[in-house]
Amino acid sequence: MMEYDFEPIRGLPEDLPADEYVVWQGAPDWRLFARTALYTRWVAGYFLALGAFALVSGSIGGAIATGLAGVAAIGLLALFAVLVAKTTVYTITNKRIVFRIGIALNKCINLPLKVIGAADLRAHGAGFGDIAVSLTAAHRLGYAVFWPHVRPFHFREPQPMLRALLEAEQVARLLAQSCATVAPHQAGEVLRDRGSSASPDGLTEAHV
Fold this sequence. Notes:
Layout lengths: L21 E5 L3 H7 L3 H17 L3 H28 L1 E5 L2 E6 L5 E6 L3 E10 L2 E8 L7 H4 L14 E5 L2 H15 L21 E4 L1
Antiparallel strand pairs: 1-2, 2-3, 3-4, 5-6, 5-8, 6-7
Helix pairs in contact: 1-3, 2-3
């Protein structure tokens, strides 16, 4: 039995205060998560290249073994993506973002909206995307605590990330509106097209 079985509200460890309400709630799409967070296409390409090399070298057995290993690797990554999608709930309220994450080790992490300084949207097409948030206040949340719900390669100052969302742009707008309500002096649009100024990992930055 999971601790999630005792949630008074899905994705939340306790009932919300009278002045707090849910703005949006969702979870990663496992197929998109597998492709964008676990890089299954790159893994598949790697094994295809190894298999092709084995065939060119005249090793049919090696090519078959490589193919089987590739299928097993992709299968394990897909299974992990399914488990992540099943156990993850992202919740945006009018006061905070709640990450209910963890497959083996369950945890809920609260991020008050007042400490969110910026949100970055990485679009994957067809409305899909990821949203990473930068925090203005110092925190002790490490990269490993949030992984894989964290912006890749930002180890020194981890940026929590809502991953593989089906309607990422809409969610980003709701987040911007909620942040503007809590901290009007930081108000702005989350979705602002920076064009060529987008960061190398494909995230488009906009301050909230």
